[in-house]
Design goal:
The protein has 348 residues and is of the alpha+beta class. It is built from ten helices and 17 strands. Strands 1, 2, 3, 4, 5 and 11 form a six-stranded mixed β-sheet that branches. Strands 8-7-9-6-10 form a five-stranded mixed β-sheet. A four-stranded antiparallel β-sheet has the order 13-16-12-17, with helices on both faces. A hairpin with a 3-residue loop joins β3 and β4. The chain is globular, with a radius of gyration of 22 Å. It binds prephenic acid. Prephenic acid binds next to α2, β3, α5 and α7.
């Protein structure tokens, strides 16, 4: 209980972010597919017994064959997948108790951060309860009989397109158009369903099997170690422990007193306690994007405009450790808000 309190005591109000929580536009934002055991009905929206017995329901982006589905399966092998059309629908499915967990990507070793999910972490009040690292191997998929020289267009999720950018250019030249799609597997399904003979999809070899496409080229990613990191989200926090390798994710904004030096002070609070940082991300402070300050230059008072940020930091310690609690107590002195997004076991 004391641990739970120490975790929650740092979850201060993020009203300063001014970001409003939106609601699921309709249940159709969750994709009904042949793989879903049941079509979701109005009754599923109310809290109650789990609709699939005791199995965990895991919301993820994309139709069957997406990488998010693979990450959800790696985290929870015997779960019921709940495909969603957008990342936000996966967050909302957990909030509305349609799903027990959501598995969403936050960063890729080639493509970098998936900013949308950082913003959603702040807008929604879910807890990070775990992480999954997935090796992502992309293939170039087309209808049977289609050859590379027939292709005029390649469809995929923007993250996948960016992970294959150099390989795509070197193999197909600059004239093949890249077009963004909801998910990699969704792109494969679209090519197959519309019988597109001048269009390929970048997706997994598993998606090729599911939608009857051929693999024109394997290993399309620009680096053979391509990894995506996913977060597992739940309504309740994971109770942190010691004795296992833990990561803690926090989000904060500097307070008015600190000004531009806030980041240095926050990072020192971890450095002085020998706590390693594994990730830092900054996003615009949407409710106060610019701060105007008076600055002296050659004895003349001028005004300077500073961009304001929300910072996300992951550090390698559990909230059950005193050094992590002390670091956050110090960080709190420099911030207008500070929230612990989760303290969870590392995927190693
Ligand atoms: O499109 C998919 O298949 C997804 O699951 C999304 C996603 C992403 O957004 O990063 C997941 C993993 C890969 O990095 C590429 C795409």
């Amino acid at each position: 209980m004391a641990l739970m309190q120490s975790l929650l005591s740092f979850s201060s109000s993020s009203s300063s972010s001014g970001l409003k929580m939106s609601t699921l536009k309709s249940v159709t934002d969750l994709i009904p597919t042949h793989n879903l055991p049941n079509w979701l009905t109005h009754d599923d929206l109310s809290p109650g017994p789990k609709i699939h017995g005791t199995k965990l329901r895991v919301a993820h982006l994309g139709v069957p064959g997406s990488y998010s589905e693979a990450a959800a399966g790696k985290a929870y092998p015997n779960s019921v997948p709940l495909p969603c059309k957008q990342f936000e629908a996966a967050f909302e499915a957990v909030e509305l108790r349609i799903a027990d967990r959501a598995v969403v990507p936050v960063e890729n070793s080639l493509g970098g951060s998936i900013h949308e999910n950082y913003d959603l972490l702040l807008r929604h009040r879910l807890h990070i309860v775990g992480e999954v690292l997935l090796r992502v191997r992309h293939s170039l998929l087309a209808l049977p009989g289609v050859r590379k020289e027939h292709l005029r267009r390649v469809l995929s999720h923007p993250q996948a397109l960016s992970q294959c950018e150099h390989t795509l250019t070197s193999q197909m030249g600059p004239n093949v158009r890249r077009e963004a799609f909801d998910s990699t597997a969704g792109a494969a399904e679209f090519v197959a369903a519309n019988n597109l003979r001048d269009t390929a999809a970048i997706a997994s070899a598993h998606a090729a099997e599911l939608y009857g496409l051929q693999v024109l080229e394997d290993g399309m990613e620009d680096d053979s170690g391509n990894l995506t990191r996913f977060l597992i989200l739940a309504r309740e926090p994971f109770i942190p422990r010691t004795g296992r390798r833990f990561k803690t994710s926090i989000v904060f904004a500097g307070n008015d007193r600190e000004g531009p030096g806030v980041l240095f002070k926050v990072l020192s609070a971890f450095g002085l306690r020998n706590i390693g940082l594994t990730k830092i991300e900054s996003r615009p402070h949407r409710s106060r994007p610019i701060r105007v300050l008076d600055v002296a230059e050659d004895d003349i008072l001028r005004t300077a405009k500073y961009f304001e940020y929300i910072f996300y930091v992951d550090f390698e310690a559990s909230m059950a450790e005193v050094r992590a609690q002390n670091a956050l107590a110090e960080v709190q002195e420099f911030t207008s808000f500070l929230r612990v997004l989760g303290s969870y076991p590392m995927d190693i």
